[in-house]
Amino acid sequence: QIGYRSWLGGNLDALDQRFDFDAMQKAALASDPGPTRTSETNFAGFLEANGVAQLAGRDLKVNLGVRGVNTKQKVSYVFNGTPIVNDHSYFELLPSLNASYDLGGNLLARFSASRTMTRPDPSSIEPVTNVSLTGDVSRGNPDLQPYFSNAVDLGLEWYYAQGAALTLAGFYKNIQNFVAPVSFQAPFRNAGVPLSALDPQIVRGLVNGLDTLVTFSTAENVQDRQTLKGVEIGFQQPLSFVVRGLGFVGNATYVEANKNTRINGLSRYAFNVTGYYERDDVNFRISYNYRSKYALQIGPVQDGLPDSIITRGRGQLDLSSSYKLPFLKELSLTFEAINLTNSDEYSYFGVENRLAVYRRPGRQFFFGVRGSF
């Protein structure tokens, strides 16, 4: 019987006899690229101008700027005893424009246009090659380049009462050189790892030796442009005429991507509704968030099959609150509750009856004390 006064202990001698740890270490070294050094140097400067002009007797506020960024990146490593160095250097100009115009009647129009740059995640460019027990290969890509986004936003905001607002915005985004995961079938010899360096179990699975077709997984810059467009509506309404300090905030978003998008984690619909009570020493918020289904990983993701891993739509109810102690205003008691609806997370291959990932995070409750000095 196991309890707080007794426990299970492993038989290390039996474990050592069951597994060949020397072979495991050898297999691990087969995927070790040796010392890897990654360095990145950035130098940036910007120019900005702000102004207010009169248009039809009303204020037009403009913010205009451009940012210049020079990046030098170097990745050096050793692969199969051969030193390899990848150098990248690039300079980019990233302009932006923001404008707002007072239409009268508490109505405001906004416009923005910008170009942004996103560098690949450092872990994606590390030249580490890993071989699974089934012989599949995953590796970083030190040749990844940054991707760029040209975005345009147009919106209307109506401030119809104190603390209240109704907003509507449309947006369009054109993404070039997007970094996305990719999987493909190729002979194992393309991994550059000799069979003699592998665990015998892996070698047995490679029935055709170096010519065995296996799945390679890495990241690449997508040549096709990725586009996003959509609308967002927001609503904020204090309810002090009912109860002082009471109110709610809500927003909803609709997004469309190009037909063959490579962007993971994109839901077509999403909305959030929050009710709040804020008065004196009491702060209370309860929120419901929902997002429709999205691609967790765009296919092919397993055995060369074209199906993507899809996560079905999910909603979650959360609560947060705080109370300042009346006898010591610098201290507050806090309480948070996450996922009160006990929602699960279900992902599948192509169709819902082909389970890929199931996760039940459960409800979480947090009590705390927060202070300021």
Number of beta strands: 21
The number of helical segments is 4
Q: Helicity, in percent?
A: under 10%
Shape: globular
Radius of gyration: 28 Å
Overall pLDDT level: 86
Largest sheet: 13 strands, antiparallel
How do the strands of the widest beta sheet line up side by side?
1-2-3-4-7-8-11-12-13-14-17-18-21
Fraction in beta strands: over 45%
H/E element order: HHEEEEHEEEEEHEEEEEEEEEEEE
Unreliable stretches (pLDDT < 50, length at least 5) are: none
Category from helices, strands and their pairing: mainly beta
Calculate the terminal CA-CA distance, rounded to whole Å. 50 Å
Task: Briefly characterize the structure.
The chain is mainly beta. The protein contains four helices and 21 strands.
Q: Your description of this structure?
A:
The protein is mainly beta and 373 residues long. Helix content is 7%, strand content 60%. It has four helices and 21 strands. The chain has a 13-stranded antiparallel sheet with strand order 1-2-3-4-7-8-11-12-13-14-17-18-21, with no helix packed on it. A four-stranded mixed sheet has the order 5-6-10-9. The protein has a four-stranded antiparallel sheet with strand order 15-16-19-20, with no helix packed on it. Strand 1 (37-55) and strand 2 form a beta hairpin. The protein is globular and about 75 Å long.
